């Protein structure tokens, strides 16, 4: 079979099954290393915990990434247990050098992940999804010039400045934000500068009255907007 057909088949299998095709025959031994999309679900860690690799789960993922021959265009990671932040940051640094275009990190464990600035060197990103991570672009961040969709359910740090971040993502078409810790870093006036925005979903906790009152006027300036979802939680409005 042509390589593109093989990778299409392997890409539809769970990662553990794709890697296990290496035992089918000598010809199939390294076929899985042609994968360009790596999906590591929480169930993969559960599977490893039942094998002899239960104490070396991070090393298994290290070896999988190192064996992939070409670009890794998509990386999906979902974890529901403690994984050292530095291990995840090591993977992100590796992916930044492998042409990553679609990155998803979902952390179901109670403690947010602290991601290194390596994340902001993934300049080929088109799609970025982060869940339960600290988010704070460094001052040296020059932008994601190719980013089309951004989904953040994160903890914004106190010194986070989202305005400059948005202006450095000029192609952004889809934006979803859940301000998990009520830090109040999301400002509609800054989002309104995203000229190419087509889909906007905001879950904001305890917004001020002026934001709510002005939301229609401000967001009405987004000429290309097609879908809008606003959820103002824990909102306390005082009527005079």
Overall pLDDT score? 84
Helix and strand content put the structural class at alpha/beta
The shape is elongated
Order of helices and strands: HHEHHEHEEEEHEHEHE
CATH architecture name: Alpha-Beta Horseshoe
Domain F-box: 1-48
Pfam family, one: LRR_At5g56370
Protein name: Putative F-box domain, Leucine-rich repeat domain, L domain-like protein
Q: What does the model show?
A:
The protein has one domain: Leucine-rich repeat, LRR (right-handed beta-alpha superhelix). It has eight helices and nine strands. The model has no long low-confidence stretch (mean pLDDT 84). Strands 1, 2, 3, 4, 5, 6, 7, 8 and 9 form a nine-stranded parallel β-sheet that branches. α8 links the parallel β8 and β9. The protein has helices at 3-11, 15-20, 42-48, 57-67, 85-96, 162-167, 188-191, 209-219, and strands spanning 37-40, 74-79, 102-107, 113-114, 127-135, 149-156, 174-179, 199-205, 227-233. The chain is 28% helix and 23% strand. By secondary structure, the chain is of the alpha/beta class.
Q: What is the compact description of this entry?
A:
Pfam families: F-box (PF00646), LRR_At5g56370 (PF24758). This is Putative F-box domain, Leucine-rich repeat domain, L domain-like protein. The chain is of the alpha/beta class.
């Amino acid at each position: 079979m042509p390589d593109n057909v093989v990778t299409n088949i392997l890409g539809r299998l769970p990662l553990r099954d794709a890697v296990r095709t290496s035992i089918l025959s000598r010809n199939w031994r390294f076929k899985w290393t042609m994968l360009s999309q790596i999906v590591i679900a929480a169930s993969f860690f559960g599977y490893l915990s039942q094998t002899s690799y239960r104490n070396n789960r991070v090393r298994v993922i290290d070896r999988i990434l190192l064996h992939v021959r070409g670009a890794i265009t998509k990386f999906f990671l979902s974890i529901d247990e403690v994984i050292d932040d530095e291990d995840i940051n090591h993977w992100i640094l590796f992916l930044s050098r492998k042409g990553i275009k679609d990155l998803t990190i979902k952390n179901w464990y109670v403690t947010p992940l602290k991601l290194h600035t390596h994340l902001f060197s993934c300049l080929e990103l088109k799609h970025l999804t982060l869940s339960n991570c600290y988010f704070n672009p460094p001052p040296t961040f020059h932008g994601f010039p190719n980013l089309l969709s951004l989904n953040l359910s994160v903890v914004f740090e106190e010194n986070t400045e989202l305005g400059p971040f948005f202006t450095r993502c000029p192609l952004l078409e889809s934006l979803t934000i859940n301000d998990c810790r009520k830090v109040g870093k999301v400002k509609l006036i800054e989002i309104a500068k995203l000229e190419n925005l087509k889909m906007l979903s905001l879950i904001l906790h305890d917004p001020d009255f002026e934001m709510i009152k002005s939301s229609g006027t401000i967001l009405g300036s987004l000429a290309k907007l097609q879908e809008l979802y606003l959820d103002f939680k824990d909102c306390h409005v005082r009527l005079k």
